[in-house]
């Protein structure tokens, strides 16, 4: 048995809305044994004593919306093919590097995700705890528009299908059942009427197809997450009774709908970075050029920076915008202030709001900027304590792991993120990660 006692720390346990001084954290193997006053340290003389230098210990951070099997490159070429395996390896390692010890994957190359979860759980590769939806179940011609259904050779290279695009309710049922049989913890779908890639009106699964999906969800006890960026998608999610609404409407929500969401117990994971970073691309590019290169293989890095530079160019978009995949930066920038107000309205109504970055799902979101999602939540009215609680205890409840992670309490996994500074005073201190512990083992620091 591995026995460890952490001391000389400030503790944010995810339960109390303040930092605690003079505490020790006792860990045996992968679990928290006790949280006690410093005076009790002599009881644990047979434990390895670890001095945390007065740093702040948080529950391991959770990202409730990510896509780590995406190799961060939209244009497939020989260099991407040769580098994608290493890039995905770096994606998983990057979560731990920045203190994210648990993720919810909401669309992946399914076979690759199954393989990675097995490797991480067996300890043969570094990475966070994973809850996954495997493939995105969506409509022909619907979001995500840039993701085609792959032929067998392409699927073999990529590591499975990223999207499944059925047309009939029976096919929806078969796909959903198949995903669950292969280990999906969630089912992911979407409802969006207008493209944010300049492609006009979009297709969606029919109501019969969506009801078929919900029938499988209810019958198998596997929750549904729904992508949306408009009021219509928000309403559709309410009507269906999905478990979580992903992203947030760019259109002002009706108060009656917000109240109904709260009444139904539906959670919102707004991924503010996925929208707001389009209004502040300079900050993302600055991080990429100063710090981000270490998280990328050369070709994905080149394509990521080139994509940002293109979005910053004027005139924009390029002439071929109707045929390719260029984000409508003006649409997202205009909608962002409305999105902030919607999040604030859900919060005021008592809704449950989690933290997700859409990491690897856009050309702007990366594990290294997780702290920025917390800062953006403070722009929607969250206190620093509320943002940290959303990143830990609230997120654990949303993704179905509240009994295992999210707080520093006896019996839970010994997953800790140790940062320099006081994030209750300055939320950006979350980026100053000094040590990361997952299951009682140091994975950084």
Provide tags for this entry.
alpha/beta
Q: Report the sheet with the most strands, covering strand number, pairing sense and barrel closure.
A: 5 strands, mixed
Mean pLDDT: 96
Largest beta sheet: strand ordering? 2-6-16-17-18
Rg (C-alpha, Å): 21 Å
pLDDT < 50 stretches: none
Shape descriptor reads globular
Number of DSSP helical runs: 13
- The structure class reads alpha/beta
Q: What is the number of strand segments?
A: 18
| Estimated share of beta-strand residues | 15-25%
How far from one another are the termini?
22 Å
Helix content: 25-40%
Question: Can you walk through the features of this model?
Answer:
37% of the residues lie in helices and 17% in strands. The chain has helices at residues 78-97, 110-122, 152-158, 169-181, 207-220, 231-240, 255-264, 272-276, 281-290, 298-312, 329-348, 370-379, 384-399, and strands spanning 3-7, 10-11, 23-28, 31-37, 48-51, 56-59, 61-66, 100-105, 129-132, 136-137, 163-164, 187-190, 224-227, 244-246, 267-269, 416-419, 433-438, 441-444. Helix 4 (169-181) runs parallel beside helix 5 and helix 12 packs across helix 13 (384-399). The mean pLDDT is 96.
């Amino acid at each position: 048995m591995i026995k460890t006692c952490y001391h000389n720390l400030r503790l944010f346990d995810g339960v109390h809305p303040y930092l605690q001084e003079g505490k020790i954290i006792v860990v045996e193997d992968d679990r928290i044994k006790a949280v006690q006053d410093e005076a009790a340290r002599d009881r644990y003389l047979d434990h390895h004593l670890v001095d945390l230098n007065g740093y702040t210990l948080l529950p391991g951070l959770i990202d409730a919306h990510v896509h780590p099997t995406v190799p961060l490159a939209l244009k497939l070429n020989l260099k991407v093919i040769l580098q994608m395996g290493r890039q995905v390896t770096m994606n998983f390692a990057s979560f731990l590097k920045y203190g994210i010890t648990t993720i919810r994957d909401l669309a992946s190359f399914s076979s690759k995700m199954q393989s990675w979860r097995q490797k991480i759980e067996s300890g043969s590769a570094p990475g966070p705890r994973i809850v996954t939806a495997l493939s995105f179940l969506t409509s022909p011609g619907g979001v995500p528009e840039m993701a085609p259904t792959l032929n067998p050779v392409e699927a073999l290279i990529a590591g499975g299908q990223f999207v499944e695009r059925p047309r009939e309710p029976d096919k929806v049922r078969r796909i959903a059942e198949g995903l669950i049989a292969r280990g999906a913890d969630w089912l992911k779908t979407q409802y969006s009427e207008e493209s944010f890639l300049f492609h006009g009106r979009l297709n969606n699964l029919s109501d019969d197809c969506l009801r078929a999906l919900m029938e499988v969800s209810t019958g198998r006890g596997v929750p549904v997450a729904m992508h949306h960026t408009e009021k219509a998608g928000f309403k559709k999610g309410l009507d269906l009774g999905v478990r979580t609404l992903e992203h947030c409407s760019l259109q002002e929500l009706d108060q009656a709908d917000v109240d109904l969401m709260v009444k139904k117990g539906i959670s919102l994971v707004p991924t503010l970075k996925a929208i707001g970073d389009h209004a502040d691309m300079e900050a993302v590019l600055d991080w990429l050029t100063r710090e981000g290169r270490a998280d990328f293989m050369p070709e994905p890095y080149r394509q990521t920076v080139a994509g940002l530079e293109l979005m910053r160019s004027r005139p924009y978009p390029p002439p071929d915008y109707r045929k390719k995949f260029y984000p409508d930066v003006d649409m997202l920038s205009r909608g962002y202030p409305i999105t902030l107000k919607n999040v604030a309205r859900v919060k005021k109504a008592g809704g449950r709001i989690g933290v997700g970055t859409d990491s690897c799902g856009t050309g702007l979101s990366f594990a290294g900027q997780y702290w920025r999602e917390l800062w953006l939540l403070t722009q929607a009215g969250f206190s620093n304590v509320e943002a940290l609680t959303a990143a830990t205890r609230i997120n654990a409840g949303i993704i179905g792991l509240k009994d295992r992670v999210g707080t520093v309490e006896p019996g839970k996994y010994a997953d800790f993120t140790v940062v320099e500074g006081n994030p209750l005073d300055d939320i950006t201190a979350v980026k100053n990660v000094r040590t990361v512990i997952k299951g009682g083992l140091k994975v950084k620091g």
